[in-house]
Design a protein that fits this description.
Helices cover 41% and strands 17% of the residues. It is α/β, with parallel strands linked by helices. Helix 1 packs across helix 5 and helix 2 runs parallel beside helix 3. Strands 2-1-3-4-5 form a 5-stranded parallel β-sheet, with helices on both faces. The protein is globular.
Length: 148
């Protein structure tokens, strides 16, 4: 979260329609959404932000589609969870896949949540909103627990 308390999100999604739906789901939530249209762009953004002296540009939460071009969502997930400066960032896999293998592989690679994208648009809006509200209202993100 930035100084204003807004959640910083990185959406890794190549489908413009799904990007618009996620934006709509977040419209009334205190979030800043950055979008990477492919896996290479996501990794470049994360690498740049994590290399700064103060990684203020790191997202608080990553919403990740498994099927993105140039570098798959699985490769992005492996990169995030394999990097000391990034592995603390929760990753929510948003996938249209209903394959058990995709689900198991995502959790084995330390995804925090796997959400199957519903076909129904209203249900998708509801699910995305609920997932982000969880991270806003219920979960405590790294660096947000207060002083010890």
């Amino acid at each position: 979260m930035n100084a204003s308390g807004w959640l910083q999100l990185l959406l890794v999604e190549d489908n413009p329609g799904d990007v618009d739906l996620v934006r709509e789901a977040l419209r009334e939530l205190p979030c800043d959404l950055a979008v990477a249209g492919d896996g290479v762009a996501a990794i470049e953004r994360l690498r740049e932000a994590s290399s700064r002296q103060k990684p203020a540009g790191l997202p608080d939460l990553i919403l990740l589609d498994l099927n993105v071009p140039k570098m798959s969502g699985r490769e992005v997930l492996a990169f995030v969870k394999g990097a000391d400066a990034l592995r603390h960032i929760p990753v929510v896999v948003l996938s249209s896949s209903r394959a058990e293998r995709d689900l198991l592989d995502s959790y084995r690679m330390h995804a925090n949540v796997f959400v199957t994208k519903p076909v129904d648009l209203e249900e998708l809006l509801s699910k995305v909103g609920a997932v982000v509200r969880f991270w806003l209202d219920i979960a405590t993100l790294p660096g947000k627990a207060g002083t010890v």
